[in-house]
Amino acid sequence: MKVIVIGASGVIGSAVADEPAGRGHTVVRASRRGPVRVDMEDPASADALFEDPAVRGADAVVCCAASGRLTPLDEPSDAEFTRGLHGKLLGQVQLTRRALHHLQDGGAVVLTSGRFDEPTPGSAFAALVNTGLDAFAQAAAPEMPRGLRLTAVSPGWVGETPERLGMDPSAGTPAAELARTYADAVEGRTARPGTRTRENRLPYAPRPATVLP
Ligand SMILES: NC(=O)c1ccc[n+]([C@@H]2O[C@H](COP(=O)([O-])OP(=O)(O)OC[C@H]3O[C@@H](n4cnc5c(N)ncnc54)[C@H](OP(=O)(O)O)[C@@H]3O)[C@@H](O)[C@H]2O)c1
């Protein structure tokens, strides 16, 4: 399969790009700074992405790009509070709508949401974005044409992220382990909706990813 990974230079995306490459798929790595360029905040750049010769004929697109951030409810700036609306939420929605017209029959769109399993100060808008993406994937999946599949992967903390913040990495799933969930979704091997995924069973995955639908 030819698999486009958007956000392929990030903590999750770099592992997500390596996994299908290790399974023998062709991986095209994209982000705002290349090698193939796309900006999830700009729908026109998603149009351009699918016209890129390196991307044409792709079977799957995976997005692990464009986070929101933790922002307190009383953040003075509306734009700052709603960061993630245009890139992470609407960007992934618009990417999905464009992918309908470009991916090969039977291909896959795999989005990233996220989850907070404990009360997390500043998480209100990010939680809204994550829940919105999960709901979108669940509702839109039955409308996917030509045997295309739509999945949202909802990870808890990835171990590398608290590690970078000087926190205990064992609180999260290693990105390489999470990447198998994405690659399974690309290949159509995702377990039935609502079932526990592989990394959920590991002792270092106290915050399991869920996969929708
Ligand atoms: N890390 C975690 O523990 C965790 C847990 C749950 C969910 N998530 C979610 O997983 C996703 C990835 O997180 P991450 O921690 O891997 O992020 P990250 O390390 O900051 O990497 C972000 C990646 O996305 C690209 N990117 C950023 N903005 C973009 C845009 N507007 N258009 C296109 N590419 C863009 C970046 O490259 P360029 O700068 O070159 O564009 C980079 O490749 C996010 O949606 C995040 O909310 C993360």
From TrEMBL:
Signal peptide: none annotated. Residues 183-213 are annotated as: Disordered. Pfam families: adh_short_C2. Gene3D superfamilies: NAD(P)-binding Rossmann-like Domain. One of its GO terms (molecular function) is oxidoreductase activity. Coiled coil: none annotated. Keywords: Oxidoreductase. Belongs to the short-chain dehydrogenases/reductases (SDR) family. Residues 186-201 have a biased composition (Basic and acidic residues). This is SDR family oxidoreductase.
